[in-house]
Write a structure and sequence with these properties.
Length: 406
């Protein structure tokens, strides 16, 4: 399984010439927009104020953008960063004041920009909630693919890339870029979570169409970098598709993978493991209950809030009335039907492996894909719980037997 580390506090993000990070929250079109900047020399630029009666023109914004951007984050000290942050705040507020014409202008500037990777990431982040058109989404993807992780926070890159994937955009170039980012520690501050580059890439490949992801990963098995080949094989095995099994059966690179955890994970999928029939003899839940429950699980914040206010509140009330201990609460969760997700519901997971049929494998894979609703340890835990169900089904039903070692 992927390597994930929970940390109590954010470590310093260190590169050879030093980085300072400033986070600002700007209110843009009624949405909270995170901007991350880090280092290069710039002086304060007084910008003209704007009012609803005198919004800036695109020519104004173009001029201001040329003065404000073009910096390199690694070259600014803390005082210069504070100044730069104020300039950026003023610039994006003026974009907001321009209304729809401001959005159109930023889209034009982003289309034209080829070299300023900081502006590309900032503009892409702003444009995503403001312009849902397919053309804008593809422009955002193409701009984000040029991000420089020495200048931009890879955590923001990952979150925006995941949102693009969930919106139906082909994010293969964005996923590949993460795999090519060696020795990364991507810090997700909201969840005190550290991810290596291929675990981060799992969020992107995991949210793709499985065939699309498998074909993309298979192409990376011939990459010149050993770490890319190893990570691609690891992720390809966890796709558990026919394309992936066929490719890995013919691939001769498994013995060359240095990390034991990768080899073990791949072999756990590629090698048939005999099951104990007694483990699945008396499932607590029927196939129909398993499928109905999976279909009813929430995948958006709105759906989570609704479930929390209804089924979740009822379960919590029941536990309070029974005055259960922490151990008893854990057992109650393990024995019950899932409300929020399948993780920790061991009786349900066992029932799924025991009762589901070969035709249900694709249903579980799709449920796993939808479980990656954001970049968090909760999403990752849910994805891995579905992965365990799928591995159990592989062995219990002996699926893809023509490709797996017996």
């Amino acid at each position: 399984m992927p390597k994930v580390q929970k940390v109590a506090a954010k470590p310093k993000f260190v590169i050879s010439n030093g980085v300072y990070e400033v986070r600002m929250i700007l209110s843009f079109l009624g949405l909270l927009l995170p901007l991350t900047i880090s280092g290069s020399l710039a002086s304060a630029l007084p910008l003209p104020s704007s009012s609803p009666d005198n919004p800036p023109t695109c020519a104004d914004l173009r001029t201001e953008k040329s003065k404000i951007y073009g910096f390199h984050l690694t070259q600014l000290d803390e005082a210069q960063l504070e100044t730069k942050a104020k300039e950026l705040d003023t610039f994006w507020k003026r974009v907001q004041a321009a209304g729809p014409s401001g959005v159109t202008c930023i889209r034009t500037l982003l289309t034209e920009e080829k070299n300023d990777h900081v502006f590309q990431v900032d503009a892409a982040t702003m444009l995503f909630p403001a312009d849902p058109s397919p053309e804008a989404r593809n422009l955002i993807r193409d701009s984000l693919s040029q991000a420089d992780f020495q200048e931009s926070d890879p955590a923001n890159y990952l979150s925006l890339a995941l949102e693009l994937g969930q919106a139906g955009v082909d994010i293969r170039p964005l996923a590949v870029k993460l795999l090519l980012y060696p020795n990364a520690v991507i810090h997700i501050s909201e969840h005190a979570l550290d991810l290596d580059s291929d675990t981060a890439a799992l969020f992107l490949y995991g949210t793709m169409d499985p065939s699309q992801a498998s074909n993309s990963l298979a192409a990376l098995l011939d990459a010149p970098e050993p770490y890319v080949r190893a990570a691609a094989a690891h992720l390809l095995a966890e796709q558990m598709t026919g394309e992936g099994f066929r490719t890995l059966k013919k691939w001769d690179g498994l013995p060359k993978i240095q990390e034991d955890f990768r080899r073990n994970d791949i072999q756990a999928i590629m090698k048939f493991q005999p099951q104990n029939p007694a483990d699945y003899a008396n499932p607590k839940f029927t196939r129909e209950q398993v499928l109905q429950t999976i279909a009813s699980l929430p995948h958006t914040q709105k759906e989570f809030d609704e479930v929390m206010a209804t089924k979740g509140a009822a379960f919590d009330q029941q536990m309070r009335e029974k005055k259960v201990t922490q151990q008893q609460l854990g057992q109650a969760v393990a024995d019950s039907l899932p409300i929020y997700g399948v993780a920790d519901h061991t009786a349900f997971q066992t029932s799924a492996v025991a009762t589901l049929q070969p035709d249900d494998f694709a249903t579980i894979r799709e449920a796993r894909r939808r479980s990656l609703y954001n970049v968090s340890d909760e999403s990752l835990t849910e994805y891995l719980a579905y992965t365990q169900i799928m591995i159990g089904m592989l062995n219990h039903l002996d699926l893809f037997k023509e490709y797996r070692q017996h």
